[in-house]
């Protein structure tokens, strides 16, 4: 046997309880084992470092909703004297509630505060007369 084969033997794999697979320190099996472990440790670290998205310190996302009035309303109003008034844009509901039906004045104001062309807020006002 050669001198480098006698000195150091590296355990590559153990299968319990009886077998150990050993190879000389300067063999292709040991070289492959070392390169495989190094590749498994170094490649993911390099990819994470260069993509710069592995350790995100802070991430935020904002989205502006679409605010629009669909002109579909169902309103019930409790009056101070204990009565109830109702009104809707749905004709069938108005037919069913004719005894408490009271038509309000409706105004809708969509405002664009930052001038980006999208409505930022919606102001809906229903005003009943003092019947």
From the structure above, extract its key features.
single chain, 131 residues, alpha+beta, two-stranded antiparallel sheet, 27% helix
Structure description:
- The protein is an alpha+beta fold and 131 residues long.
- It is built from three helices and six strands.
- The chain has helices at 3-7, 28-51, 91-96, and strands at residues 9-15, 19-24, 74-78, 84-88, 105-111, 121-127.
- A two-stranded antiparallel ribbon has the order 1-2.
- The longest helix has 24 residues, at 28-51.
- The radius of gyration is 39 Å and the shape is rod-shaped.
Topology:
Elements: H1 3-7, E1 9-15, E2 19-24, H2 28-51, E3 74-78, E4 84-88, H3 91-96, E5 105-111, E6 121-127
Antiparallel strand pairs: 1-2, 3-4, 5-6
Short description:
The chain is built from 3 helices and 6 strands; from the N terminus they run H-E-E-H-E-E-H-E-E.
């Amino acid at each position: 046997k050669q001198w480098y084969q006698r000195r150091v033997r590296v355990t590559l794999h153990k299968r319990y309880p009886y077998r150990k697979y050993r190879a000389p320190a300067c063999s292709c099996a040991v070289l492959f084992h070392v390169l495989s472990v190094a590749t498994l440790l170094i490649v993911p670290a390099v990819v994470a470092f260069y993509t710069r998205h592995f350790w995100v310190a802070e991430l935020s996302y904002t989205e502006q909703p679409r605010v629009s009035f669909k002109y579909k309303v169902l309103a019930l109003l409790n009056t101070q004297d204990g009565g109830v008034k109702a009104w809707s844009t749905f004709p069938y509901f108005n037919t069913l509630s004719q005894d408490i039906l009271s038509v309000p004045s409706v105004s809708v104001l969509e405002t664009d505060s930052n001038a980006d062309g999208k409505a930022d807020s919606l102001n809906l006002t229903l005003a009943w007369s003092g019947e």
